[in-house]
């Protein structure tokens, strides 16, 4: 079954197709589809010839079973030109004869869905690439952190999709009612895809451990941080299952949307923001786990953005920042000032809440900072959390497939 949105999209495409009565070559290379009604001038669609030729759907150019292009790209003529066009209204097809003597045929609704109009491109990216993130302040946590029933997520695809969608948009989502066994995080990760393994194994247990090799395995307060900033390929999503919660007043989780903090810094204190975006920090982790020694280092600024300026990743960890700071001398003091600003803004905005046994907290480890208040760890007063990681590649893929099946 197709989603309502996709059906509406296709209906719109079909109705446009019926009105598409003219087609012409423009600038010798491109093809323009024009609806008959002059009123619909904004729906004029222009398709670059080179792109059309590249995306020929014939069996020689396109392998339908694998949905893959199969040109010999060594021979592909980027200067290819359309020589002759024909619109087949009955079959809703556009036929093109090319300067390289090839002939192609394109469905009009196929073309419409690949419109180069900026608005249509934005809609495609939000629908099929990734849903737009909505940033939030700590005070909004109760409104944005949606809660889902564990059993329904495990058995109903619609509930699974809602959970993953909330996680993608807000960077945090909670499940409740999970059984109190150590296998929950694995079953959840396998419901989505598979667990992301790290130096600390697949599932990890967060509890006070004598002789701990990682700062998280203490009962002292755990300051805000992201996990594994010292990995280039940093785990995307943290899932934490509360099996036993301490009866002491501590042991609360702290969460903050660090993309929101970065955005505040960008708007209010541009100089600090730019510095945290540009100065690379050496994040590191030295230790051993299950008899295996490791020494991880990854160099990257605190705030990372893509070419469009969209936030992609935040790195922050007090214990796991290398004492080697390989920047020019004069950058050191300013960097500390900027980092302190960022960390204090985050601390002020952090939301505190306490998981109950059976709760599962999932959050975006590339975006949120998390921490924990200290607690008294005694035999009567313990805390037992099982965690695991998943990766966005696997989650987004699952989400796209679920949406398609709707
Ligand atoms: Zn072809």
Bound molecules: zinc ion
**Highest-level CATH class of the largest domain:** Alpha Beta
Q: Specify the biggest β-sheet.
A: 6 strands, mixed
For the CA atoms, what is the radius of gyration?
26 Å
With helices defined by DSSP (H or I, 4 residues minimum), what is the helix count?
A: 12
**What portion of residues belong to β-strands?**
25-35%
The residue fraction in helices comes out at 25-40%
Give the termini distance in whole angstroms: 6 Å
The count of DSSP E runs of length 2 or more, i.e. the number of strands, is 22
What is the correct CATH architecture of the largest domain? 4-Layer Sandwich
Low-confidence stretches: none
CATH domain fold name of the largest domain: Double-stranded beta-helix
Structural class: alpha+beta
Shape: elongated
Q: What multimeric state do the chains show?
A: single chain
Q: What number of structural domains do the residues give?
A: 2
CATH superfamily of the largest domain: Clavaminate synthase-like
Written account of the structure:
Residues 47-112 form the Gamma-butyrobetaine hydroxylase-like N-terminal domain. One of its GO terms (biological process) is carnitine biosynthetic process. The chain is built from twelve helices and 22 strands. By secondary structure, it is α+β, with helices and mostly antiparallel strands. A hairpin with a 4-residue loop joins strand 4 and strand 5. Helix 9 (258-268) crosses helix 11 (329-349). The structure holds zinc ion (ZN). Zinc ion binds next to loops.
């Amino acid at each position: 079954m197709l989603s309502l949105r996709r059906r509406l999209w296709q209906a719109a495409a079909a109705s446009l197709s019926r009105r598409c009565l003219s087609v012409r070559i423009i600038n010798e290379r491109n093809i323009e589809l024009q609806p008959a009604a002059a009123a619909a001038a904004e729906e004029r669609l222009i398709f670059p010839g080179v792109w059309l030729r590249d995306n020929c759907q014939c069996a020689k150019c396109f392998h339908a079973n694998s949905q893959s292009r199969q040109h010999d790209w060594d021979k592909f003529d980027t200067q290819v030109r359309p020589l002759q066009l024909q619109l087949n209204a009955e079959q809703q097809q556009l036929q093109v004869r090319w300067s390289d003597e090839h002939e192609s045929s394109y469905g009009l609704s196929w073309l419409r869905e690949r419109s180069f109009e900026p608005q249509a491109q934005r809609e495609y990216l939000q629908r099929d690439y990734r849903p737009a993130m909505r940033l939030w302040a700590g005070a909004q946590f109760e409104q944005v952190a949606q809660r889902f029933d564990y059993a329904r997520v495990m058995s109903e695809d619609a509930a699974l999709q809602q959970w993953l969608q909330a996680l993608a948009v807000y960077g945090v989502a909670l499940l409740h009612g999970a059984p109190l066994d150590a296998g929950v995080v694995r079953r959840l990760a396998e419901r989505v895809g598979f667990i992301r393994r790290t130096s600390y194994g697949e599932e990890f247990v967060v509890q006070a451990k004598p002789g701990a090799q990682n700062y998280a395995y203490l009962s002292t307060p755990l300051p805000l941080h992201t996990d594994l900033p010292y990995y280039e390929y940093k785990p995307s999503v943290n899932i934490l299952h509360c099996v036993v919660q301490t009866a002491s007043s501590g042991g609360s989780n702290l969460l903050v949307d660090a993309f929101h903090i970065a955005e505040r810094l960008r708007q209010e204190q541009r100089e600090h923001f730019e510095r945290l975006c540009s100065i690379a920090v050496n994040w590191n982790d030295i230790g051993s786990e299950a008899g295996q020694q490791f020494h991880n280092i990854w160099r990257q600024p605190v705030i990372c953005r893509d070419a469009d300026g969209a936030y992609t990743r935040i790195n922050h960890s007090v214990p796991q920042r290398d004492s080697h700071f390989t920047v020019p001398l004069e950058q050191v003091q300013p960097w500390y000032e900027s980092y302190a600003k960022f960390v204090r803004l985050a601390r002020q905005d952090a939301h505190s809440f306490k998981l109950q046994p059976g709760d599962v907290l999932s959050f975006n480890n590339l975006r949120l900072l998390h921490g924990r208040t200290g607690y008294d760890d005694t035999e009567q007063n313990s805390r037992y959390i099982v965690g695991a990681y998943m990766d966005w590649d696997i989650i987004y893929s699952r989400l796209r497939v679920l949406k398609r099946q709707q």
